Every structure is written in structure tokens, then in C-alpha cells.
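Researcher: Quick test of sequence recovery. C-alpha cells follow.
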């Protein structure tokens, strides 16, 4: 395979990707540059005394890790200067970040989790940056309103993640399939390594934090029990795998198939994962790769966010496995 960079790939697919304008390509270039900077710091985290927490708590009520704060600053600094954005939203910031008049502004909105699974850095497990790209509604001018940002996931014009692990990998879709690019440290470029990624129709792996079993409702318990006791496509039991970092668990699901589940709980009836910066971009990738993403009762990408940090349950992965979850939930609903 020829060494095709991300930018070259976008240019080659421009006819199929209308949003691959100079502004959009510039946005992705700065996203990639941010990812390279974050990757370098993660690789040296143990040497630079940037492991562990800061002692602060973020808007989500979670302990802030040092690398959370560093990754967030890198993303905001780089992206507000890209010239492609009018606004951003970070998982680490309570409010919408509007690009100020001191910087050139564009037509796009970036929603991101700067470092998903950051507590895993201390034990050298994969973490990642997740991002969602929206376009500001046509005809809107002046200061960006919150209503301009609260768009359903199907209106995304691009989404992806950067996985920091044994290699650093960018997984991206701009509406023409899902493509993976691996960072070659020798040339400092992300090169196409996984073209046209596809999720198998049915998998053999289920991924969930089983420690919360006692907090689930009966429908969710039945869902998990089904995967525990049913044979997979190869005639063997489903295998349980759970990393505890959303990007890492989803990346495995994308490549191997199966299902990742983060259901609602009695303590968290709306779910825990953030709709706009976590569930929507991964749901976009899943559908582009032939998979499916649901909250157990309906399509993730159809959900209309009511606030910047809205939460949702998430069932994502192989189409047949996600449909089995919806079938079990529907059966319970019918009994009520």
C-alpha cells in the first residue's frame, strides 16, 4: 500500500466528501497536530511528572487528571486558532467556548473529549481523544448561540478519535466510510493503514462493567444475561472484555465486532456517557462502518440534546447484537 496521508486521502475523496473544503481540511490538520502533541506528552508522562490527579473536579463531577488538563489546553489553544471554528465544547469545560474576535472564525463547531480514560495513563493502558464536527446552521451570523450547537448526531459532518496506545492511530469518517491512519514517528505523519473499516454483522465479544449489575433494571439484567448464556457466531460462549476506556473498548469492537454497553442505572437514569462528545461521534463511526448504536430504545444519532453535557445510555457495535438489545428492551416495555 502506498503511504497515503490523511490530507491526501481527503483530497482523493473530495468528490464524495462535499465538506472537504480548504477550511475543513485545515480543521482536520489542526486536530491532527493537537493529537501529535498530546501523544508526545503521554509517551513521556512518567518522566515529566504528569501522572495522577490535579486535585480538582470537573463539570462532570470527576477527578481531573493532570493529562486531562494538559490535553484540554492543547486542544483549545490549537483549535481556536485554526480559522475553521466558530465555537467548541469540551468535556472538561462547563460552558460553550466561543472563538473570540481576536481569531479568524469559520463555519464549524467542534465537540470533543480531550482525553477519554485518562486515569488509565497511570497503568499504561490505551486512552484517546474523541471529536465530533458540526456545521453552524446556514444563515446564522453573530455570536454563536447554544441552540446552534445542540444538534442531533445525524447532522455531524465528521467524527473520529485518536487512540494513544502501542501506536497512535487516527480513526476518521467524513461521511464516506471509516478509515484508520497510523502515526509513523519516522516521518511524523498519519498514514492510511486501515481503509474502509467494517464492523462484523454479529460478534463474539460483549463489553460492560459488570460491577454495576445490582444497579440495573430487570431489562438490562436480561440483556447482559443473554450475552452471558448465548453462543456467539462461532458456536462458543460470548467472551467478556472490558478495558474501562471508551475509546479502547470501541476500537476493539470496531475491529473485532461484538457489543459495548454502558446502560442507565438506578443512580443514573439518564446514563453516564456524554451524548455529544462521546456517544454521537462513536455512533457516527459505527453506522459508517455498518454497525449500529442505540440507547436501548432508539437510534443514538436521532437524539436531540437538551443541554451541552446531556448524557445517554449506549449500546454500540455489531448490528445484530445491538438489535438483540433493542428486542429485549421492547419485550420488557410491552409487559408494562
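Model:
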Amino acid at each position: 500500500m502506498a503511504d497515503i496521508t490523511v490530507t491526501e486521502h481527503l483530497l482523493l475523496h473530495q468528490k464524495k466528501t462535499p465538506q472537504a473544503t480548504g477550511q475543513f481540511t485545515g480543521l482536520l490538520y489542526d486536530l491532527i497536530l493537537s493529537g501529535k502533541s498530546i501523544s508526545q506528552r503521554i509517551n513521556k508522562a512518567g518522566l515529566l511528572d504528569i501522572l495522577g490527579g490535579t486535585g480538582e473536579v470537573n463539570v462532570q463531577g470527576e477527578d481531573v487528571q493532570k493529562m486531562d488538563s494538559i490535553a484540554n489546553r492543547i486542544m483549545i489553544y490549537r483549535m481556536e486558532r485554526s480559522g475553521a471554528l466558530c465555537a467548541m465544547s469540551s468535556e472538561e469545560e462547563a460552558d460553550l467556548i466561543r472563538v473570540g474576535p481576536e481569531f479568524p472564525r469559520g463555519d464549524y463547531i467542534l465537540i470533543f473529549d480531550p482525553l477519554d480514560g485518562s486515569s488509565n495513563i497511570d497503568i499504561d493502558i490505551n486512552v484517546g481523544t474523541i471529536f465530533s464536527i458540526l456545521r453552524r446552521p446556514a444563515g446564522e451570523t453573530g455570536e454563536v448561540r447554544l441552540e446552534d450547537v445542540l444538534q442531533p448526531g445525524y447532522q455531524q459532518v465528521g467524527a473520529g478519535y485518536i487512540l494513544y496506545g502501542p501506536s497512535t492511530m487516527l480513526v476518521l469518517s467524513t461521511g464516506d466510510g471509516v478509515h484508520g491512519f497510523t502515526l509513523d514517528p519516522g516521518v511524523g505523519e498519519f498514514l492510511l493503514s486501515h481503509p474502509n473499516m467494517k464492523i462484523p454483522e454479529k460478534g463474539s465479544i460483549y463489553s460492560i462493567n459488570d460491577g454495576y449489575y445490582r444497579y440495573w433494571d430487570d431489562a438490562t439484567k436480561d440483556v447482559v444475561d443473554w450475552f452471558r448464556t448465548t453462543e456467539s457466531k462461532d458456536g462458543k460462549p460470548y467472551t467478556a472484555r472490558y478495558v474501562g476506556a471508551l475509546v479502547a473498548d470501541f476500537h476493539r469492537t470496531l475491529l473485532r465486532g461484538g457489543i459495548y454497553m454502558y446502560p442507565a442505572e438506578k443512580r443514573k437514569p439518564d446514563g453516564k456517557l456524554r451524548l455529544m462528545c462521546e456517544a454521537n461521534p462513536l455512533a457516527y463511526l459505527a453506522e459508517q462502518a455498518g454497525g449500529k448504536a442505540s440507547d436501548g430504545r432508539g437510534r443514538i444519532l436521532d437524539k436531540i440534546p437538551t443541554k451541552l453535557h446531556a448524557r445517554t445510555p449506549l449500546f454500540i457495535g455489531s448490528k445484530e447484537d445491538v438489535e438483540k438489545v433493542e428486542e429485549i428492551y421492547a419485550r420488557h416495555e410491552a409487559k408494562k
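The two ends are 56 Å apart (CA to CA).
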